């Protein structure tokens, strides 16, 4: 999958997270899915304050981030175990996404950022 824009990179991660949540039977409400896509720099992102408020009412932000971080860790592990070449797609998508300001980057970085580094220090 070519990752040629921040929007494409974000869609890659959002879709993977939603698929993992469905695979595990972990519910992600419409508001929680919307929050995955939150961005300050993506011109295609449409701000919906009602969905933002709904997500905050459903789950405290630290719990939401923990929930998503776990999904990311497990999806990455599963994907790499089944198709090692996907790691390059993850790296490319992460690098592209880091060009902007996207909420999802916090959780990706915490969950698998060290595994997607181009240069390893050890």
How far apart, in Å, are the first and last alpha carbons? 29 Å
Determine the number of helices (DSSP H or I, runs of at least 4 residues).
Answer: 6
Helix coverage percent: 55-70%
Q: Write the element-wise H/E pattern from the N-terminal end onward.
A: HHHHHH
Q: Categorize the overall geometry.
A: globular
Average the pLDDT over all residues and give the rounded result: 92
Find the structural class using helix and strand composition.
mainly alpha
Kindly estimate the percentage of residues that lie in beta strands according to DSSP. under 5%
Low-confidence stretches: none
Report the strand count: 0
Q: Count structural domains.
A: 1
Rg on CA atoms, Å? 14 Å
Major sheet: none
Question: What do these coordinates show?
Answer:
- The protein has 122 residues and is mostly helical.
- It has one domain (6-116).
- It has 6 helices and no strands.
- It has helices at residues 6-24, 30-36, 49-58, 61-82, 86-97, 104-112.
- Helix 1 crosses helix 5 (86-97).
Descriptive labels:
122 residues; mainly alpha; globular
What's this entry about, in short?
With 122 residues, this protein is an all-alpha fold. The chain has 6 helices and no strands.
What topology emerges from the helices and strands here?
Elements: H1 6-24, H2 30-36, H3 49-58, H4 61-82, H5 86-97, H6 104-112
